[in-house]
Design a protein that fits this description.
It contains 18 helices and no strands. By secondary structure, it is mainly α. It has two domains: 224 residues, no CATH class; 125 residues, no CATH class. The radius of gyration is 57 Å and the shape is elongated. Keywords: Coiled coil, Glycoprotein, Membrane, Transmembrane, Transmembrane helix.
């Protein structure tokens, strides 16, 4: 029996070792350290570029504010010029005389024209540069990334460069494209399905329950229990029970016994006697008599304490007598029934067939195998679905596409697009400002009230001569 138990424990330990050894032959283990190292280096490099990105963002805001301020300055000059010029014309009475308000409006309009000529080359240059960078980034990065052509480009480059070859990086015999892996991960498939690892690693054979439990089942089936050697009640115990029944416990006069133990052992109230002797000892003048009284008082107190403890024992004894009285009448029948049950059980143990023990062993084996099968199914599900899940890869790539395109390149293109329209509208703004400023200035070279020609010209007057 001990050898069978020892062999069964050894089989269980071997099962644990065999299951642990699966990972040594599992694919991708050789390539995972390199992938982890690459991800680790990427994770360590990201904080290095954080400061550069913050600096770039700061400079971007400065340039944007400066350019917007230039456009706003030109617009402000045009608006103020139109406002002041219109007010000056509305308040002026003579279009030939100089008007400070309309003259200021014309000056503001021409200032806007000057600023337009001064900064237009810078705006055109910036629009051209940002257009080249943003347009190429959108057409060469964002569009291929959105429709998946960028992954095909990676596959094309990977076919020529082993460093970008997915099969070479993962050290797999089959050829896989990055596009297939990304599409599978986006569908929610695991790498086990996408990379078809079942072709290189027979998981069913590795997780075959019979492979691990054959030795354990053999050891358990060797288990053989000999029930004939089991003794439920030996002759000594049987004799004790029979002697106890024959002791005459049912013939005891419990009533007389109860009355006897309920009689008081002392009919005197010792507390009153002790109190009386204590009072008497206080009135004695003879020291010898007083000493004797004190000694007797101490003995009486000890006796009273003993009697109190005996009263508690009498109470317990009375309860025990009541219990014994209750079982005394049925004790013989109970003991005889117990002996018959023991004899019957002993005969059943002698007559139990071995197939019954074998069935119990098989039930135990089936139950344990069920535990192993459930565990191995969980291991299979964990390997094929949970551990090798790559949904995070597609999510990361999609999020990267959103960050790069939607948050960087698209705002960049929106900026140069708006700046280009603002620059384009500078042309009609210049023409409009020049044409309008001419009307806000006084008319020169025409006749006016202060013209010398008007002052020197004299109207003819009729002269009347007297008779």
């Amino acid at each position: 029996m001990a050898a069978i138990v020892s062999d069964s424990k050894a089989s269980v330990n071997n099962i644990e070792g065999n299951i642990s050894s699966i990972k040594e032959s599992f694919p991708l283990l050789d390539s995972l350290p390199a992938v982890n190292e690459s991800l680790g280096s990427l994770d360590s490099d990201i904080p290095k570029y954080g400061g550069e990105l913050k600096r770039y963002n700061y400079y971007r805001w400065i340039v944007s504010i400066v350019l917007c301020s230039i456009i706003l300055l030109i617009i402000a000059c045009n608006v103020l010029g139109l406002l002041l010029g219109t007010i000056g014309i509305a308040l002026g009475d003579d279009p030939y005389s100089a008007n400070g308000c309309s003259q200021s409006g014309a000056n503001f309009l021409m200032a806007g024209v000057g600023f337009s000529f001064l900064f237009s080359w810078l705006l055109i240059l910036l629009v051209f540069i940002t257009f080249i960078v943003g347009g190429l980034a959108y057409t060469e990065i964002c569009k291929p990334w959105a429709n998946g052509d960028i992954y095909k480009l990676i596959d094309t480059i990977g076919s020529q460069d082993d460093r970008l070859n997915l099969s070479n990086v993962l050290k797999l015999n089959q050829s896989f494209s990055f596009t297939e892996v990304y599409s599978g991960c986006k569908r929610g498939d695991s790498l086990w399905t996408i990379l078809q690892l079942d072709r290189t690693f027979d998981l069913d054979e590795k997780l075959n329950v019979n492979k691990y439990t054959d030795d354990l089942v053999k050891n358990l089936r060797r288990l053989n229990v000999d029930l004939n050697s089991i003794t439920l009640l030996n002759s000594g115990g049987r004799n004790v029970l029979q002697e106890f029944v024959a002791s005459g416990i049912k013939n005891i006069d419990y009533q007389a016994f109860s009355e006897q133990i309920s009689n008081a052992m002392v009919n005197v109230n010792l507390s009153l006697v002790i109190q009386y002797l204590s009072t008497l000892s206080l009135t004695q003048t003879d020291t010898e008599v007083k000493s004797n009284l004190t000694a007797q008082i101490e003995r009486l107190r000890n006796l009273e304490t003993t009697l109190q403890e005996q009263r508690k024992d009498v109470v317990n004894l009375t309860e025990s007598l009541d219990i014994l009285k209750g079982i005394g009448s049925t004790l013989e029948a109970s003991v005889n029934a117990t002996l018959k049950s023991v004899d019957k059980a002993a005969k059943m143990l002698e007559t139990i067939p071995k197939p019954l023990l074998k069935n119990a062993t098989e039930c135990f084996i089936a139950k344990e195998l069920g535990y192993f099968e459930g565990y191995l199914k969980w291991v299979r599900k964990a390997i094929t679905e949970d551990i090798l899940s790559c949904n995070v890869v597609s999510v990361t790539l999609d999020n990267s596409q959103v960050i790069v395109c939607d948050f960087l390149i698209n705002p960049w293109n929106a900026f140069w697009f708006c700046l280009a329209w603002c620059t384009l509208f500078l042309i009609p703004s210049i023409i409009f400002a020049v044409k309008t400023a001419k009307h806000f200035r006084p008319i020169k070279g025409m006749f006016s009230q202060d013209s010398s020609e008007m002052t020197t010209f004299k109207l003819p007057r009729a002269q009347i001569n007297g008779p």
